[in-house]
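hey so i finaly got around to running the thing on Tripartite-type tricarboxylate transporter receptor subunit TctC from Roseococcus suduntuyensis. pasting the sequence first so u can double check i didnt mess up the copy paste, my clipboard has been acting weird all day
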Amino acid sequence: MMNRRTLLAAAPLLATPALVAAQPAWPTRPVRITIPFTAGGASDIMVRPVAQRLEQMFNQPFTVDNRAGGGGAVGVGFAANQPADGYSLLVTTPGPLVLLPQMQSGGAFAYDSARSFTYISLMAGAPILCAVKADSPITNLAQYAAAARRAPEAMNFGSSGIGSMGHLTGTLFGMQADARMVHVPFRGAPEAQAAVLGNTTISLWDTAAGNVAAVRGGTLRGLAVSSATRAATLPDVPTAAEAGFPNVVSLNWFMLCAPAGVSPAIAERLHAAINTILDEADIVNRMNAAAFVRAERVAQPQLAGWVAAEQARWTPVIRAAG
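ok and heres what it spat out for the 3d tokens, dont ask me to read them lol
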């Protein structure tokens, strides 16, 4: 017969099979990853290779569902209201998650960044690129700032939408350059680029990843990137700091989320899988080629606090921009 001390010592071992048996198998059917932007943009470039690797790791389809609109609010709201069963995920940027609700405080949103999601993994970051059409007379960021100062509100810039990191970084630049610029929101990076190439918008502040091909192909001229160092795939494009604007630093990060209440076991499995995938040589090469940088590593339980801190960092910019 086991005495009390022996029974207590054995309890964890005895409980383990029961706990394992009680946990439902996951995944046993396809998993949907919502992207709240149009197909072909930086989020697609980031997510689709990772989704393919998740399929291989978990032996189930991980499908990408682009649901654009409202600066990303449509797709984020959709994802927030799905069942918290691990079969509905979201990859979003800071724009619709933490910036847009502050910029439209009177609006009704179908989600709350502090309560609607379980944050699973901070994946990567994309520098913001300031660019003009290749035949523009503006050849550097100093000339761009000077042109904006000469004709207040005549300089306009496109981005992926209201509240996007491109919007906020362009606004931050205007504050630092003492220039009043007009923001022109689009549904995604391809539309913003098309407007510049079609001469309906003068410039853009948008993710470098969505515009690398146009810069390297000679149709866009990159004036600066917002990262702390130059993008590996755009070595001739200086940072904003190098161009004389040291406080214009930002990254459009990508966060994998699930609806609030998802099983901690599922969140931990996905967090570990994403970390493994992002360290693989093929994925690293793909990310570098698209001008992404690996985001800082944040433990899954600390991600909610990280998001809150990021929101607080941009609050003064949003308020100053009105």
